[in-house]
Structure formats: structure tokens, C-alpha cells
Please model this.
Amino acid sequence: MPAIVSAKAIHKHFGTLHVLKGVDLDVAERELVFVIGPSGSGKSTLLRCLNRLEQPTSGSITVDGIDMLSSKTDINHARQRIGMVFQSFNLYPHMTALGNVTLALRKVAGKSRAEADRLGQAALERVGLADRAHHRPAELSGGQQQRVAIARAIALEPKVMLFDEPTSALDPELVGSVLAVMRSLRESGMTMVVVSHEMGFARAAADRVVFMDHGLIVEQGAPAQIFETPSHERTRAFIGQIQRH
Amino acid sequence: MSSWDRFLHTFFNLQVMEKYLPDILSGMVLTIELALAVVVAGLLAGLILALIRSLGIRPLNWLIIFVVDIFRSLPPLVVIVLIYFGLPAAGLSASAFVSTWLSLALVLMAFSEEIFWAGITSTPRGQWEAARSTGLSFSQTLFSVILPQALRITIAPLTNRTIAITKGTALGTVVALHEILGMASSAVSNSYNPSPLMMGAAAYIVLFLPVVVAARWIETKFAWKR
Amino acid sequence: MEEIVQAFFNWEIASEAMPIVLQGLLNTILLSLMVVPLGLINGLLLAVLAQSHRRWIRWPLMAWVDFFRAFPPLVLLILLFAGLPFAGLELNGFSCVAIAFFLNTGAYYGEILRAGIESIPRGQVEAARSTGLSATQTMIYVVLPQAVRNVLPDLLSNTLEVVKLTALGSVVAVPELLFQARQAQSVTYNATPIVMAAVIYFLILWPVVRLLSRLEHRALVLRG
Model:
């Protein structure tokens, strides 16, 4: 399968801090890649480089054939193809759920209000929140807000979805609803890169698990392999720590 | 003469500036005196009013709120004119200094009372209760527990408001007060040259820019979280 | 007592002066309607520019804002009114007021709006950008609506100050409320017109002051 996301030799410095030390990552179409690692390992930074929310110090990133790092690239246009879901949801508090979902449809994709509303409503239905379209974020639970955030991202029909710790800010009983949406996305064939601690989800749904530590990819492979028979000492130590919880 | 030279000769004429420098300096002294007098009187009066309000006597509170609202609604210039030109009609007289001082102090009193009051009421009830339950009296609680905490919230809006009001010292010109603007204006008419005005402007910058910068610094200093 | 009423609350003089004073009120309102939007536009421009990543834009901007906040508006006004003629530019009082207020109130509005913009969490901008919205679109549709809502009390408070500031126009013969009142006062040798002006200012602005008091109190308590 051709790689839809191709990151090569990514280095990222924050001042003197060398956060990414030469990372290569290819993601094939329809693949669900799960990125794990201790905090500070650079996994979120890597994710945010993929849609250029962070600018790598060096390296190259291609998504769906677009050179993400070139100054000639229309980054706003490119970002329509990449959906991102954040740990803190980041819904616009001054708009309804539908408003959140349709803003980019109207302003970036140039859809008419009627068309945008139709597509937005459809996206909300996919995440099971069609009846909450006219509620404001403050009136929704954390899990519902995150699902609206997912709807906001998928409404633009991206080729790749990036998830930055999507359930880490949720109360445990709300996590399930979000994971269910992510599972259904996967089933519909979406390419997904997920940074998360939800190991159960990884085991069940991931095609590939990538373990990062100190700015480098230490090991990657099928979930069964990484969780049961990791080859590297550090991977073993990390998995051991997680499982003890 | 080139047009640049003409410009300098008109607006930055050294001879004229030298001649009227003493006037501008005396104007600066007066401005400083006036500003200090306004700040001390205004803040003190505002604090006292806020403290009285904390006693919770209804009719008194309404009176305070009414007076405060008046001086928050009226332009300071109107108050100055009212006092200076109005009082003689009632048989009293107020000098230019007193009129300007009184008006600005009353305005600062009104604004600072609101700010102090907000600071006092925003301190949680629990603080009052805890302090009183350990036996502290009303005034001990007020001064040792409540006010220090209230201060943190009030510092930023208070410095902003105080600076804004003390810039009103320039309004004294309207009643012929010999502060900076007044001195500069008469110097301009006497010498038929605008250089004294440029000096006056520089004098204000010298006086107020450091204050504004210091205020920014104070604001950041007091931004610590509870 | 009788003297005081005659001096300050003289009905005859009040009715004579009423038309003049009301004309002044009209001009004050017109002046405010012109000056407030000008200041807001200037402030918005300053606040948005202050978000620039380039230091050579931010620092001069900060200096500009600090300068016009430090400089007394009356001095600025006189400088323009009395000083510009020497440079060959004779501007009438009205234009001088417009320029002076544009510069002065723009700086104050700019600071308020800047604080508002900076109070919006970065996550909002990131989410918007990640959906392909440009920086400008993000500012217009996501950041500014929230920022303005957050600093509405401060904006209102500053607008109140600007309306009061129009009284300065009286110093350069702009026929606003205070000027008209003083004209009437000097003609009648009676303080009643000035009392009338004060009462009018109070009647118009007091509702705003009350509203503001409530808003500010709530905001301050929340912030604590």
C-alpha cells in the first residue's frame, strides 16, 4: 500500500532542547498507527509536525503527495486533508456544535451555508450527536465535546486523521464513547495516527504500534509483538510500567 | 534657510526654550505637587468610603453609591469649572489649585472606592469566618486578613485609574493654573513661538512615561496566583 | 440658601439657556459617535499587529501605545491646535479633537483588545488552523468574537471615558455641551448653565456607570 504520510529524518529543537532526533515514519492508506511512549518522548511533537502546527528544524514531510514543509505549499489548503483532534477538544465556545463543524466548511471549503449545514449535520450523525447540533460546548459532556471535535475534523473529509491524546482529559466513563467513534472511523477505512495511552484500544484496533523514547523511534511492529514480545529493553520497561496500572 | 532648519527654528528654538525653561520647570513642580495631593487625598477618601461601606449600613451605603456614581459620570473638566466658576456665585471662592485638586481628588475617590470595594467583596467569606472564629475583631480581620488579599486584586486597576486621573492635572490650564500646560501656553502666546509647547510635551513625557512603565511592572509583579 | 438657588438653579436662566445647552448636547453626541469608532478601529489595528512574531513590529508598537497612554490628551490637543498653525497647518478645533482622540483612545482600546486577544487559549488557534482556516480567518471568526466578549466591560468602561473626554473640545472651541454651557454662563454671569450641563452629563452617563459597576464587579470577583 502506498504511504499516504511520509516523514523523513525529522529533527525538532525547542531552543536548545532537542526533542525529535531524526524520526522516520511512513503511514500507509487505511492504516491505524498507534504511537506510545513516556511523556517527553516527542510523540505529540511528531504528530503536530505532520500538519505543521510545529515546524520541524529539519527533515521532510509529505502527506497525500503534498510537501508540508515547503513555503510554496498553500498550508491552509493542505490542512483540509488532515484532520486533527486535540486532548483539550478546543471547541469554539461561542458557536453551537453545528457551528463548530461548519465553520471551516464555509470559510475554507467555500460551501454555501445550506450545503455546509447538511454536511455538518451528517458528520454529527456519524459521531452520534445529530440531536445536539444546536447545543453549545458548555452544554455538552467531555465525551460529547470530543466527539463534536471529531465531527469537526471529519466534516472536511480528510485523508488522514491525527489524534493527540484524545481521551486523556476525559473522565473514565466517557472514554468509551470516544473510542467507539474512533473504532467506527477505522472500520470505514480512515487512515489514523493516534498518540494515546489507551493500550486496550491499541491491542484491538491498531495495525502498527510505534514506541518512542527520547525523541527517537525505538521499536515498531504489530500490537501483539510490541505488547507481548518487545525486542528492546526500554520498550519492555515501558510496557511493564503501563501494564502495572 | 532649508525647510528643516526652519522647522527646527520654529518648533525647537533654543533661545526661546532657554528663556522659558524656568517657567516650565516651575510648572513641573506644581504638576507634581498637584498629582501627589490628588493621589493621597483621592485614594485615602476612596479607601475610607469602601471601609465604611463594609460596615453594611444600608442608607449610608446608598449615599456613598450615589456620590460615587456622580463623580464617575461627570467629566473632571466639568467638575473643575463648576467649582472654580460656580463657588464665587455662592459667596465662596476656590483657587485654581484647590479647584483642580478637589475635582480630581473627588473623581479618584469615586473610582478607587469602587475598586477597593470590589477587592474587599471578592475576598471569600471563608476568610472573614476563619479570622473571626479565632477571636479577631472586625477591624483586626479587616486590616490583617482581608485588606492584604484585597490589595492583590486592586493593584492593577488602581494604578491604571490613578495614572489616568493624574494626567488630568493638565486640565488646570482651563482655570489658569500655573502647571506645565498653562505655563507653556502663555509662553507660546508671549513669544509667538511653539517651542515652549514642545518643552511642555517633553516635560509630561519625562514625568509620566516612567510612571506608566512602572505601572506595567507593578501589574506583572502582582499577578501571582492565590 | 436663596442665593445658592439663584446662583446655581435659576429657572429663568435655565430656560433661556436650554436651547444653547441642548445644541451642545447634540454636538457631544455627534462627536462621540465619530470618535469612538475611530478609536476602536485604531485599537483593533494595534491589537492585531501586536500579535506579530516580529520584534521590529512589536516593540515600536508597544512604545507607541505606552507613549499615547502616558501623554495627557489635553496636551496633545493643544499641541495640535496651537502648534500646527506654526507649521502652516490650520486645523479647526473639531479636526484637532478627532486626531488627538484617535491617537489617545486608540492606544487605550488597543491595550484592552490586546489583553482580550491574548487571553484566548492557544488551543483555539491550533484547532482553527488545523481545519485549514487561515491566520486572518482564525482571528476574525474564532479569536476576536471571544476576545471582545471577554473584555466587553473594559471596552464599555473606556467608551464611557471617551464620551467624558469630549468635554475637552470646549478648550478648543468645539461647541459641545461644556463649551455651550460656559458660553451661556459667561453671558449670564450665572453658574446655572454649568449645573445644567452637569445634570445632563449625569442623566446620560449614569445608567452606563451603573451597568458598568455591575459588570466590573462580577468580572473582578470571577478573576479573584
User: Anything to note?
Assistant: The CA atoms of residues 49 and 55 of chain A lie 6 Å apart. The longest strand of chain A covers residues 3-14. The two ends of chain A are 36 Å apart (CA to CA). Chains A and B do not touch (no CB pair under 8 Å).
